[in-house]
Amino acid sequence: MTKRVAILVSGGGSNMVSLIDSMLGDHPARPCLVLSNNADAGGLAKAQARRVATAVVDHRPYGEDRVSYEKQLIDALEAAQPDIICLAGFMRVLTEHFVNHWQGRMLNIHPSLLPKYRGLNTHARALEAGDAEAGCTVHEVTPALDDGPILGQARVPILAGDTPESLAKRVLTQEHILYPAVLQRFAAGVTERIDLA
User: Residues with Cβ < 8 Å from 62, sequence gap 6 or more?
Assistant: First the structure.
């Protein structure tokens, strides 16, 4: 049975585009919704251009009331009946209640080689630490930030003269390869970790 995939974005949606485009042809999943917390997110127009349904649940009217906000988020998602949720640059920290609601069905991509550098500013932190390599990780989402079982990683060397921006660009190229590869396996019921050079 083909799995239905909802993708959550806050910005331009480059990882969302790589996921949607990968679900063409012979694939165990299909996109059913792209949802954003930001009506101006560039990813919405890109999803619409690919004939994928979109929705916006703006977090701002809810202030600090994350429970009420997430209730609206859950309602919007459940209307689309996804089997899998992919976070693709969704810049909201989700509560334990929301995560538990979708436990075992929600993926995230993070721009570091977890467990290193959870949270923000991952590329600058890797450079400051003098690391020889950086990369990205796709993992199942759990209530702990950037935690959960690792389903795949891709590595890139850190080069002399790298800046956070130049490193981010090379890592993003790998994100666009890794995330679709992991989603295809996950939708087919395969959860063994993969590692890309």
Answer: 68, 69, 72
> Annotated binding residue at 108?
yes
**121 C-beta neighbours (distance < 10 Å), count:** 12
Q: Is 22 annotated as a binding residue?
A: no
Nearest to 182, CA basis, from 170, 169, 195, 197: 195
Q: Is the pLDDT of residue 65 over 90?
A: yes
Which of 59, 97, 101, 110 is an active site residue? 110
Task: Tell me if 4 is assigned to a ligand binding site.
Answer: no
Q: Which of 62, 93, 58, 64 is nearest to 76 (CA)?
A: 58
Q: Is 139 a catalytic residue?
A: no
Burial class (CB in 10 A: 0-12, 13-18, 19+), 73: buried
Measured distance CA(135)–CA(74) in Å, rounded: 31
For residues 140 and 128, what is the distance between their CA atoms, to the nearest angstrom? 28
The structural domains of the chain, ordered by start, are 1-102 (3.40.50.170), 108-197 (3.40.50.170)
How does pLDDT run across 96-133, given as a tens digit for each residue? 999 999 999 999 999 999 999 999 999 999 999 999 99
Ligand-binding annotation for 37, yes or no, is no
pTM above 0.70, yes or no: yes
- Identity of the residue numbered 131: D
